[in-house]
Automatic annotation (TrEMBL):
Protein name: XRE family transcriptional regulator
Annotated signal peptide: none
Origin: domain of life: Bacteria
Record-annotated HTH cro/C1-type domain positions: 17-71
A UniProt-annotated Pfam family: HTH_3
Organism per entry: Flavobacterium pectinovorum
InterPro entries with a match to the protein in the record: Cro/C1-type_HTH (IPR001387), Lambda_DNA-bd_dom_sf (IPR010982)
GO molecular function annotations of the record: DNA binding
Length: 75
């Protein structure tokens, strides 16, 4: 069990990443590779189980070929 609850905003960003991957018909493993992340780390981010640093958000947005603001929609 986590010491502190993950903020709702982290879960929303993870959901947005998942939605963009689905909308663009991309593979999670390709996005993980292109953002220089371990596939399991990317999955934890997508599930809202782990907080992402700004550097990771930038790399993920570049791999998805979207503006970083797209990751924050619905917040």
């Amino acid at each position: 069990m986590r010491k502190t609850e993950v903020p709702e905003s982290v879960k929303i960003v993870g959901n947005n990443i998942k939605d963009i991957i689905k909308e663009k018909n991309l593979k999670v493993r390709h996005i993980a590779h292109d953002s220089d992340l371990d596939i399991e780390a990317l999955r934890r981010y997508m599930l809202g189980k782990q907080i992402m640093g700004i550097d990771k958000l930038i790399r993920i947005s570049k791999a998805l070929n979207v503006e970083i603001s797209e990751l924050f929609r619905k917040i």
